[in-house]
Amino acid sequence: MIKRGIKNYLICLKYFFTPLGTLCLGVILGFSVFIPSIASAVEQLTTDVERIIEGMQIEPQNVLGEVWACVTELDWSKPIEAFNTLISREWLEATLHKSINVFFAGDYSMYVNQVNEAVNVAVTTIAAGFIVLVLFTVISVIGGYYLVKFLIRRTIAKRAFWKRIIVFFVDFVVYFGLLTLNVLFAFLWTPGIIFSSLFSFVLFGGLAFAEAYAVHGYGKLKFKQVMTLKNIGMLLLTNMIIFLMWFAALFIVILLFREIAGIVIGLVLLEIASIVMDMNAESFVKDLAVNKETEIKDIPAVAA
Fold it and tell me: 134-168, pLDDT tens digit by residue?
């Protein structure tokens, strides 16, 4: 089972560019909304400031230039920290104030309250654009996950559509129940979360084999051939090895290409790994059933 599971993971890496492509598409669509929202917010801000401060003229592109200068001043050698700073409301407000103040030579204090209101409106517009960017990104990740899951299922564990529907509802009930149990243990007895998590981990393995038997082995294999402690243990060990392979790949990518590449590539590899781990039991039982049918068909020929 370990060899088969690792082989499944390595084979399914051929779908690497599928979730990566959907992620890139989502990010591109998100930025196509986010960037114009920034330009629109700055343009409206300059219009409001010109109205508040009579005689003052500011070109939106000049303000955008000052904002971009502030962006480049962030420490991008630590991209995650820099990005967290970039999306904070406090930083945006301070940066917009600074970018406007550069073009004002007089006493700025008398206009602070009014300018603050204009800046708040601009920040809200930018925040709305950022939310759209995040939304598109999340949708692309989810869409890429289910697309690659469809492709991987055709490769290692194809099954009828109606069986997928039944298994989906069974999974939902069981997983929701176990999640509720873990949360309950965490509230009532903190150490209990460790025991409930271990129990859930083992139960997931048993559930995976029960579903695999129902979908691929019923009528072909005996239930006790599938549902054994050895099989469950081997499945958990196989999935642990795949997880460690993913973690090693993530570490190498971050080491070579820094955090941003690590997050993107690591997310794509994790999607593939999680799907394969979810289907390893089905792959094992399906092959077991096929081998059993082959043995039965070969019996008359051997007897002859």
Answer: 999 999 988 998 899 888 888 876 666 666 676 66
Which of 251, 269, 247, 249 lies closest to 259, judged by CA?
Answer: 251
Nearest CA among 5, 37, 3 for reference residue 280: 5
CA distances from 256 to 83, 159, 161, 260, 262 (A): 20, 40, 42, 11, 9
- Distance (Å, rounded) from C-alpha 205 to C-alpha 176? 16
Residues 279, 157 contacting (CB under 8 angstroms): yes
Residue 114: closest CA among 62, 43, 48: 48
**Contact call for residues 281 and 212 (beta carbons, < 8 A):** yes
Type of residue found at 239? N
Quick one: tokens of 64? 């955008």
In sign, the C-alpha dihedral spanning 158, 159, 161, 167 is negative
Q: For residue 42, give both structure tokens.
A: 């700055």
pLDDT lower than 70: segments of the chain: 55, 105-109, 157-164, 166-205, 292-304
> What sections of the chain are H helices per DSSP?
2-12, 17-52, 60-72, 79-86, 89-101, 112-156, 161-188, 192-212, 223-226, 229-303
